[in-house]
Amino acid sequence: MEKKGLYTIAETLDTGWRIAGALFFVLYTVGALGHIYDPTRALMLAMTPWFLLTLGVVTLVPLLVQREITLWVWIVGTFLVTYLLEVLGVYTGLVFGGYRYGRGMGFPVFGVPPLIGFNWVLVCLGAARLVQGWRIPRGAKALAAAVLATAFDYLMEPVAIALGYWSWVGGEIPLQNYAAWFLIALGAGVCYFFALPGVKTRLPPVHLGAQTLFFLILRIFGGV
Questions:
Q1: For the chain, how many structural domains are there in total?
Q2: Residue 160, exposed/middle/buried by CB under 10 A (0-12, 13-18, 19+)?
Q3: C-alpha R_g of the chain
Q4: pLDDT value at 17 more than 80
Q5: Could you list the residue ranges that cross the membrane (predicted)?
């Protein structure tokens, strides 16, 4: 029987990941330049939540080709755990340090935009898929993925603050934040490498690379 609808789109994205990935890099580069150029900055900021949501969904759609329910359990679980930890962090300061979210990532629910949990999924999945093929033990892969995710946050933090995504109490990024990022990403990585069959699509690390380029451009040329 001919596959239709969403599964057809999933297969197209899976086999055409190079084209989709190239489009990711083009769009994120244009977005970064739009943030630097004053007349378009307000528009870029307003588009941020919808932009990330759309490209994030495109990144995950190819997973439908595998028909592995455990992958979606991991995705939903990672979203819920990270979102709840973010809520706990905002209200108590115990997880990442004292901080609060602005409106740059969308409307907050219990102090946290749901898109934050979604981006956690994208970052952890992208990092895990990137190291998936490395010929090292699974535990080492989980550690490597956690290091990559934490490095991404290190690159992202000053830009996110400058763009009003969130702000830290006292204006300084605490080391506690990076420790929390590492431990949370490590937990997600352990579950990924020890409980899942592995992701086949290459779009998650490509999307993470495009996001990295976005923040790198703004760090270098945006005066952040």
A1: 1
A2: buried
A3: 17
A4: no
A5: 20-37, 43-64, 71-91, 111-131, 143-166, 178-196, 203-222
